[in-house]
């Protein structure tokens, strides 16, 4: 799963203004590998894009990767600004 983590980070880091604040956490459940992506609050719009097009493109790439297990991959973009 490190290859998929590297793939997500390679896609996301060039899109943001603060690549050092990009973090990716992997949570394994019964059905999914959930990748929780966090970026700086001012970069959240860059990752989502107009009408969610950038997020949809990232998810299309990530979801197309085959895993060795029967579990599916899910990419969540976390918005930490709602907690404040």
Give the arrangement of secondary structure elements.
Elements: H1 2-12, E1 23-28, E2 32-38, H2 44-48, H3 53-63, E3 72-78
Parallel strand pairs: 2-3
Antiparallel strand pairs: 1-2
In terms of per-residue confidence, which ranges show pLDDT below 50 for 5 or more consecutive residues?
A: none
How is the main sheet built? 3 strands, mixed
Counting DSSP E segments of at least 2 residues, the number of strands comes to 3
Q: Which range best describes the helical content: under 10%, 10-25%, 25-40%, 40-55%, 55-70% or over 70%?
A: 25-40%
Q: How would you classify the helix and strand content by structural class?
A: alpha+beta
User: Which shape, going by the Cα principal axes?
Assistant: globular
Mean pLDDT: 88
Overview of this structure, please?
The protein has a 3-stranded mixed beta sheet with strand order 1-2-3. The radius of gyration is 13 Å and the shape is globular. It has 84 residues and is α+β, with helices and mostly antiparallel strands. The protein has helices at 2-12, 44-48, 53-63, and strands at residues 23-28, 32-38, 72-78.
List the defining traits of the structure above:
alpha+beta, 3 strands, 24% strand
What would you say about this model in short?
By secondary structure, this protein is an alpha+beta fold. Helix content is 32%, strand content 24%.
């Amino acid at each position: 799963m490190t290859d998929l983590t590297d793939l997500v980070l390679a896609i996301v880091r060039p899109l943001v203004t603060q690549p050092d604040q990009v973090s990716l956490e992997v949570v394994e459940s019964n059905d999914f590998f959930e990748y929780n992506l966090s970026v700086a609050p001012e970069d959240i719009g860059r990752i989502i894009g107009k009408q969610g097009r950038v997020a949809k493109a990232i998810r299309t790439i990530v979801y197309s990767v085959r895993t060795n297990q029967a579990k599916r991959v899910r990419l969540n973009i976390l918005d930490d600004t709602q907690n404040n």
